[in-house]
Amino acid sequence: MDRRKFVKNAGLAGLAGSAGLLAACNRQSGPADCAEGTGAGPNEALEWKMVTTWPRDFPGLGTGANYLARIIGEMSGGRLTVRVFGGNELVPPFEVFDAVQRGTAEMGHGGAYYWKGKMAASPFFSTVPFGLTGNEINGWFYHGGGLELYHELYAPFGVIPWPIGNSGTQMGGWFNREINSVEDLKGLKMRIPGFGGEVLMRVGGTPVNIPGAELFTALQNGTIDATEWVGPMNDLAFGLFRAAKYYYYPGWHEPGTALEGIVNAEAYAALPSDLQAIVKYACQAANMDMYADFEAHNGDALKSLVQEHGVELRAFPDDVLAELKRVSLEMLEEQAAADEMSGRVWASLKTYLEKVRSSTAVGSQSFVDHR
Ligand code: CA
């Protein structure tokens, strides 16, 4: 396959003691020399590209993508290295999926809910309003059938997805007016992606989705009235407190958002089995590491927002949350009825949620309430 880039690696060649084999499989050599379709041999060094929807090195999200690239390189002893591109460096943020599908890049990092125009069921794999927390969704992915459904949904596109990172429970967003009733959401033009946006529309708001890097300017110049982004660590990094007064919680629309890594299926299939395993388990390790990063740093960021930047924290009123939940469940049922795959995924999620609801309630939820 011509997009696969073989690179000479003098260090590796020295280690392997077979410079001749490497040289025989560089870009000048023919496909026969490179054993096309059989995957990289033990002495070949591969370089992949990873395109992302985030600004380069953005805290948590961008650095999480960097972490994944780094550990693939480390675990493979340099046989597979991954070069990370921030949004707009190789392709625009929301063209990450297309770039991986057509092989412009072998990997991508973003969020499943950005691709709902291609796959109606994709947002279920990011987060569901009033659905699973970060811990719960990882249980669903790895031990509740979620990963199998995720792979099935993306298979027709020649793309393999994995959960890579989790933001934990997000914040409700940034507003310049108080939200005292559902009426206050009417006419509100808000950046809010995925199912949350559909719910906002049903209560009279106007959801838009724009890349994170454009949020501050859009909020400041009035292109949007309000925005959600992620949580304290990421929202502080974009300076959203400079463009809005009130910071609402909880993030009812994103109770535990899974970020997403995608791999071009053909490029993956061409890897030898040990490199395939490295990519797969590096994704799992990166999933945990990004979640830990958010958990570890949101507290300091929240303190900074409130104490240094004068942000006013507000909780959504109970009746507003109750109405948003009612509308969310109605919307999810309709979506499940309208699209076969959405129906199967929502059924799986609901079954899983009912299973963990009671154990979460008497376990972590009860404990944290009393800590
Ligand atoms: Ca968000």
Q: In summary, what is this structure?
A:
The chain has 371 residues and is an alpha/beta fold. Helices cover 45% and strands 15% of the residues.
Description:
This protein has 13 helices and twelve strands. It is α/β, with parallel strands linked by helices and 371 residues long. The protein has two domains: 176 residues, D-Maltodextrin-Binding Protein, domain 2 (3-Layer(aba) Sandwich); 144 residues, D-Maltodextrin-Binding Protein, domain 2 (3-Layer(aba) Sandwich), CATH 3.40.190.10. Strands 1, 2, 3, 4, 5 and 11 form a six-stranded mixed β-sheet that branches. A three-stranded mixed β-sheet has the order 6-10-12, with no helix packed on it. Helix 3 packs antiparallel against helix 11, helix 5 packs across helix 6 and helix 12 runs antiparallel to helix 13. The N terminus is likely disordered. The structure holds calcium ion (CA). The site of calcium ion has 5 residues, from loops.
Write the layout of secondary structure elements.
Layout: E1 5-7, H1 10-16, H2 19-23, E2 45-52, H3 61-75, E3 80-85, H4 96-102, E4 107-110, H5 134-143, H6 146-154, E5 159-166, E6 173-175, E7 189-191, H7 194-202, E8 206-208, H8 215-220, E9 226-227, H9 232-237, E10 246-249, E11 258-264, H10 265-269, H11 273-308, E12 312-315, H12 318-338, H13 340-370
Parallel strand pairs: 2-3, 2-4, 7-8, 7-9, 10-12
Antiparallel strand pairs: 1-2, 4-11, 5-11, 6-10
Helix pairs in contact: 3-11, 5-6, 7-12, 12-13
This protein binds calcium ion.
Calcium ion (CA) is lined by residues 170, 228-230, 254.
